[in-house]
Amino acid sequence: MLPPLPQTLMASRRWTQASLAVAALLLLMASSAPARADVLMVVSELDDAGEHFWWSQPKSPELGRFETLMSTLSAERAPMLIDPRQVEAPSVSQVVFGRAELGVVNAINLASLYGASRVIHGQLRVEQCAAAPMLSLVGVRVSVELHVHATQSAIELLSVQLDETRYARSKEQAEQAALAAAGARIVRLFEQSGALQPSDLRIEVGEPVLLLSGMQTARPLVDVKKALKSSELVVDVVERWSTEGAIALELNPAQVDEPSFVFEQFERALRETYLGFTLQELQRDDERVEVLVLTTNVVRE
Q1: CB contact at 8 A, 196 and 148
Q2: pLDDT of 140 strictly over 70
Q3: How far apart are CA 162 and CA 172, in angstroms?
Q4: Per-residue pLDDT at 26 exceeds 80
Protein backbone atom coordinates (compact mmCIF):
# COMPACT_ATOMS: atom_id res chain seq x y z
CA MET A 1 0.00 0.00 0.00
CA LEU A 2 1.43 3.36 -1.03
CA PRO A 3 1.84 6.16 1.51
CA PRO A 4 -0.07 9.38 0.85
CA LEU A 5 1.24 11.25 -2.18
CA PRO A 6 1.97 14.51 -0.30
CA GLN A 7 4.52 12.55 1.78
CA THR A 8 6.17 10.86 -1.16
CA LEU A 9 6.58 13.93 -3.31
CA MET A 10 8.29 16.06 -0.66
CA ALA A 11 11.50 14.07 -0.11
CA SER A 12 13.78 17.10 0.17
CA ARG A 13 11.50 18.78 2.68
CA ARG A 14 11.38 15.61 4.82
CA TRP A 15 15.18 15.36 4.69
CA THR A 16 15.48 18.95 5.92
CA GLN A 17 12.94 18.36 8.70
CA ALA A 18 14.76 15.24 9.86
CA SER A 19 18.09 17.08 9.82
CA LEU A 20 16.62 19.89 11.92
CA ALA A 21 15.16 17.34 14.33
CA VAL A 22 18.55 15.69 14.83
CA ALA A 23 20.19 19.08 15.26
CA ALA A 24 17.58 20.12 17.82
CA LEU A 25 18.17 16.93 19.80
CA LEU A 26 21.93 17.39 19.84
CA LEU A 27 21.53 21.03 20.85
CA LEU A 28 19.17 20.01 23.65
CA MET A 29 21.68 17.49 24.95
CA ALA A 30 24.58 19.93 24.76
CA SER A 31 23.83 21.46 28.17
CA SER A 32 24.19 18.14 29.99
CA ALA A 33 26.55 16.28 27.66
CA PRO A 34 30.30 16.28 28.28
CA ALA A 35 32.33 18.96 26.53
CA ARG A 36 34.10 16.38 24.40
CA ALA A 37 32.64 14.02 21.83
CA ASP A 38 32.09 10.70 23.58
CA VAL A 39 29.56 8.68 21.55
CA LEU A 40 30.84 6.42 18.76
CA MET A 41 28.60 5.13 15.96
CA VAL A 42 29.57 1.80 14.42
CA VAL A 43 26.67 1.18 12.05
CA SER A 44 27.26 -0.93 8.95
CA GLU A 45 25.25 -0.23 5.80
CA LEU A 46 24.04 -2.92 3.41
CA ASP A 47 22.66 -2.11 -0.06
CA ASP A 48 22.77 -3.51 -3.58
CA ALA A 49 26.42 -2.42 -3.88
CA GLY A 50 27.49 -4.49 -0.89
CA GLU A 51 28.27 -3.88 2.78
CA HIS A 52 30.06 -0.79 4.02
CA PHE A 53 31.60 -0.13 7.44
CA TRP A 54 34.13 2.58 8.25
CA TRP A 55 36.18 0.53 10.75
CA SER A 56 37.44 -1.69 7.91
CA GLN A 57 39.94 1.14 7.28
CA PRO A 58 40.35 2.91 10.66
CA LYS A 59 43.36 4.92 9.47
CA SER A 60 41.35 6.47 6.60
CA PRO A 61 37.68 5.86 7.46
CA GLU A 62 34.84 6.61 5.09
CA LEU A 63 31.54 7.09 6.90
CA GLY A 64 28.25 5.75 5.60
CA ARG A 65 25.27 7.90 4.71
CA PHE A 66 23.56 7.76 8.08
CA GLU A 67 26.75 8.24 10.10
CA THR A 68 27.83 11.12 7.88
CA LEU A 69 24.55 12.96 8.51
CA MET A 70 24.74 12.45 12.27
CA SER A 71 28.43 13.38 12.50
CA THR A 72 27.97 16.54 10.44
CA LEU A 73 25.12 17.74 12.64
CA SER A 74 27.04 16.80 15.77
CA ALA A 75 30.04 18.86 14.69
CA GLU A 76 27.83 21.87 13.93
CA ARG A 77 25.54 21.78 16.95
CA ALA A 78 26.95 19.78 19.85
CA PRO A 79 30.22 17.84 20.13
CA MET A 80 28.61 14.53 21.06
CA LEU A 81 29.46 12.08 18.28
CA ILE A 82 33.06 11.10 17.71
CA ASP A 83 34.06 11.56 14.08
CA PRO A 84 36.70 8.87 13.40
CA ARG A 85 37.98 10.97 10.51
CA GLN A 86 38.95 13.77 12.89
CA VAL A 87 40.75 11.82 15.62
CA GLU A 88 43.94 9.81 15.71
CA ALA A 89 42.99 6.18 15.10
CA PRO A 90 44.00 3.79 17.89
CA SER A 91 45.77 0.56 17.13
CA VAL A 92 42.89 -1.65 15.92
CA SER A 93 43.25 -5.36 15.20
CA GLN A 94 41.70 -6.26 11.85
CA VAL A 95 41.48 -9.85 13.04
CA VAL A 96 39.09 -8.76 15.79
CA PHE A 97 37.45 -5.69 14.27
CA GLY A 98 37.82 -6.33 10.54
CA ARG A 99 34.23 -7.37 9.90
CA ALA A 100 30.92 -5.56 9.72
CA GLU A 101 29.14 -7.63 12.40
CA LEU A 102 31.08 -6.75 15.53
CA GLY A 103 28.86 -8.14 18.25
CA VAL A 104 28.25 -6.42 21.57
CA VAL A 105 31.62 -7.02 23.23
CA ASN A 106 33.73 -5.96 20.24
CA ALA A 107 31.54 -2.91 19.58
CA ILE A 108 32.03 -1.82 23.20
CA ASN A 109 35.76 -2.50 23.06
CA LEU A 110 36.18 -0.58 19.79
CA ALA A 111 34.30 2.42 21.23
CA SER A 112 36.42 2.25 24.39
CA LEU A 113 39.58 2.45 22.28
CA TYR A 114 38.21 5.71 20.87
CA GLY A 115 37.49 7.05 24.37
CA ALA A 116 33.69 6.84 24.05
CA SER A 117 31.30 6.50 26.98
CA ARG A 118 28.50 5.23 24.68
CA VAL A 119 28.45 3.16 21.51
CA ILE A 120 25.66 3.00 18.93
CA HIS A 121 26.09 -0.17 16.90
CA GLY A 122 23.99 -2.12 14.44
CA GLN A 123 23.05 -2.25 10.77
CA LEU A 124 21.19 -0.12 8.27
CA ARG A 125 19.80 -1.94 5.21
CA VAL A 126 18.70 -0.12 2.04
CA GLU A 127 16.76 -2.08 -0.57
CA GLN A 128 14.56 -1.30 -3.52
CA CYS A 129 10.99 -2.54 -3.20
CA ALA A 130 8.04 -2.91 -5.57
CA ALA A 131 7.57 0.16 -7.74
CA ALA A 132 4.34 1.98 -8.51
CA PRO A 133 4.39 2.01 -12.35
CA MET A 134 0.98 3.65 -12.66
CA LEU A 135 2.35 6.66 -10.80
CA SER A 136 5.91 6.42 -12.18
CA LEU A 137 7.28 6.11 -8.65
CA VAL A 138 10.24 4.08 -7.34
CA GLY A 139 10.11 2.50 -3.89
CA VAL A 140 12.94 2.14 -1.35
CA ARG A 141 12.78 0.48 2.05
CA VAL A 142 15.23 1.36 4.85
CA SER A 143 15.52 -1.09 7.75
CA VAL A 144 17.46 -0.09 10.85
CA GLU A 145 18.56 -2.11 13.85
CA LEU A 146 20.52 -0.17 16.47
CA HIS A 147 21.71 -0.92 19.99
CA VAL A 148 23.11 1.55 22.51
CA HIS A 149 25.53 0.36 25.17
CA ALA A 150 27.62 2.10 27.78
CA THR A 151 31.23 1.19 27.15
CA GLN A 152 31.84 0.46 30.81
CA SER A 153 29.20 -2.27 31.00
CA ALA A 154 27.43 -4.91 28.94
CA ILE A 155 24.01 -3.52 29.84
CA GLU A 156 21.94 -2.49 26.82
CA LEU A 157 20.59 1.02 27.24
CA LEU A 158 18.36 1.11 24.15
CA SER A 159 17.35 -1.17 21.26
CA VAL A 160 15.80 0.18 18.06
CA GLN A 161 14.29 -1.79 15.18
CA LEU A 162 12.27 0.00 12.52
CA ASP A 163 11.45 0.12 8.82
CA GLU A 164 10.56 3.03 6.58
CA THR A 165 9.39 2.81 2.96
CA ARG A 166 9.12 5.80 0.67
CA TYR A 167 8.27 6.35 -3.01
CA ALA A 168 9.59 9.09 -5.27
CA ARG A 169 10.37 9.88 -8.91
CA SER A 170 13.88 8.46 -8.59
CA LYS A 171 15.63 5.86 -6.46
CA GLU A 172 17.88 8.52 -4.96
CA GLN A 173 14.93 10.67 -3.87
CA ALA A 174 13.08 7.68 -2.40
CA GLU A 175 16.20 6.57 -0.55
CA GLN A 176 16.78 10.05 0.84
CA ALA A 177 13.20 10.30 2.05
CA ALA A 178 13.28 6.85 3.68
CA LEU A 179 16.57 7.61 5.44
CA ALA A 180 15.18 10.93 6.66
CA ALA A 181 12.03 9.29 8.04
CA ALA A 182 14.03 6.57 9.80
CA GLY A 183 16.42 9.17 11.21
CA ALA A 184 13.59 11.30 12.58
CA ARG A 185 12.10 8.31 14.41
CA ILE A 186 15.46 7.33 15.85
CA VAL A 187 16.02 10.88 17.07
CA ARG A 188 12.71 10.83 18.94
CA LEU A 189 13.61 7.52 20.57
CA PHE A 190 17.02 8.83 21.65
CA GLU A 191 15.38 11.97 23.03
CA GLN A 192 12.74 10.06 24.98
CA SER A 193 15.08 7.40 26.39
CA GLY A 194 18.06 9.54 27.40
CA ALA A 195 20.26 6.59 26.44
CA LEU A 196 23.06 8.85 25.21
CA GLN A 197 23.35 10.65 28.52
CA PRO A 198 26.49 9.44 30.33
CA SER A 199 26.72 9.04 34.07
CA ASP A 200 30.11 9.39 35.68
CA LEU A 201 30.10 8.63 39.37
CA ARG A 202 33.31 9.53 41.14
CA ILE A 203 34.11 9.48 44.83
CA GLU A 204 37.12 11.36 46.14
CA VAL A 205 39.50 8.89 47.77
CA GLY A 206 42.62 11.01 48.18
CA GLU A 207 44.79 8.85 45.92
CA PRO A 208 44.66 7.36 42.41
CA VAL A 209 42.40 4.40 41.64
CA LEU A 210 42.56 1.65 39.02
CA LEU A 211 39.33 1.68 36.99
CA LEU A 212 38.49 -1.67 35.39
CA SER A 213 35.86 -1.75 32.64
CA GLY A 214 34.60 -4.24 30.05
CA MET A 215 34.38 -7.19 32.43
CA GLN A 216 31.98 -9.95 31.43
CA THR A 217 32.60 -12.05 34.56
CA ALA A 218 34.04 -11.49 38.02
CA ARG A 219 37.22 -13.43 37.19
CA PRO A 220 39.28 -10.44 35.95
CA LEU A 221 38.43 -8.49 39.10
CA VAL A 222 39.56 -11.38 41.30
CA ASP A 223 42.78 -11.94 39.36
CA VAL A 224 43.76 -8.25 39.17
CA LYS A 225 43.22 -7.81 42.90
CA LYS A 226 45.34 -10.91 43.49
CA ALA A 227 48.10 -9.50 41.28
CA LEU A 228 48.05 -6.20 43.14
CA LYS A 229 48.19 -7.90 46.55
CA SER A 230 51.13 -10.06 45.50
CA SER A 231 53.37 -7.20 46.66
CA GLU A 232 54.15 -7.22 50.37
CA LEU A 233 53.72 -3.44 50.31
CA VAL A 234 50.04 -3.76 49.37
CA VAL A 235 48.11 -4.83 52.44
CA ASP A 236 44.63 -4.72 50.90
CA VAL A 237 42.75 -3.82 47.70
CA VAL A 238 39.11 -2.73 47.90
CA GLU A 239 36.35 -1.76 45.45
CA ARG A 240 36.03 1.94 46.19
CA TRP A 241 33.21 2.85 43.79
CA SER A 242 31.55 1.61 40.62
CA THR A 243 29.39 2.88 37.78
CA GLU A 244 27.83 1.05 34.84
CA GLY A 245 29.97 -2.04 35.25
CA ALA A 246 33.26 -0.20 35.83
CA ILE A 247 34.89 -0.79 39.19
CA ALA A 248 37.47 1.48 40.85
CA LEU A 249 40.11 -0.28 42.96
CA GLU A 250 41.93 1.47 45.79
CA LEU A 251 45.14 0.26 47.42
CA ASN A 252 45.63 0.18 51.18
CA PRO A 253 42.38 1.94 52.18
CA ALA A 254 43.55 2.32 55.79
CA GLN A 255 46.34 4.67 54.76
CA VAL A 256 47.18 7.33 52.17
CA ASP A 257 49.93 6.22 49.80
CA GLU A 258 52.13 8.41 47.65
CA PRO A 259 50.80 8.67 44.06
CA SER A 260 54.14 7.46 42.68
CA PHE A 261 53.85 4.27 44.71
CA VAL A 262 50.24 3.70 43.61
CA PHE A 263 51.05 4.18 39.93
CA GLU A 264 54.02 1.84 40.28
CA GLN A 265 51.74 -0.89 41.61
CA PHE A 266 49.21 -0.29 38.82
CA GLU A 267 52.00 -0.59 36.24
CA ARG A 268 53.03 -3.88 37.78
CA ALA A 269 49.49 -5.22 37.48
CA LEU A 270 49.27 -4.07 33.86
CA ARG A 271 52.45 -5.99 33.00
CA GLU A 272 51.10 -9.18 34.58
CA THR A 273 50.09 -12.12 32.36
CA TYR A 274 46.52 -13.28 32.99
CA LEU A 275 44.69 -16.41 31.92
CA GLY A 276 41.67 -15.69 29.71
CA PHE A 277 42.05 -11.92 29.42
CA THR A 278 44.46 -9.05 28.92
CA LEU A 279 44.49 -5.48 30.21
CA GLN A 280 44.76 -2.48 27.89
CA GLU A 281 45.25 0.98 29.31
CA LEU A 282 42.82 3.52 27.87
CA GLN A 283 43.77 6.73 29.62
CA ARG A 284 45.09 8.11 32.88
CA ASP A 285 45.20 11.30 34.89
CA ASP A 286 46.17 12.25 38.41
CA GLU A 287 43.07 10.55 39.83
CA ARG A 288 42.83 7.25 37.99
CA VAL A 289 44.18 4.78 35.46
CA GLU A 290 41.38 3.50 33.23
CA VAL A 291 41.87 -0.04 31.93
CA LEU A 292 39.85 -2.13 29.49
CA VAL A 293 39.53 -5.89 30.06
CA LEU A 294 39.86 -7.76 26.76
CA THR A 295 38.77 -11.39 26.77
CA THR A 296 41.04 -13.87 24.98
CA ASN A 297 40.28 -17.33 23.62
CA VAL A 298 42.06 -19.11 26.42
CA VAL A 299 39.73 -21.40 28.35
CA ARG A 300 40.27 -21.76 32.06
CA GLU A 301 40.22 -25.39 33.16
Answers
A1: yes
A2: yes
A3: 20
A4: no
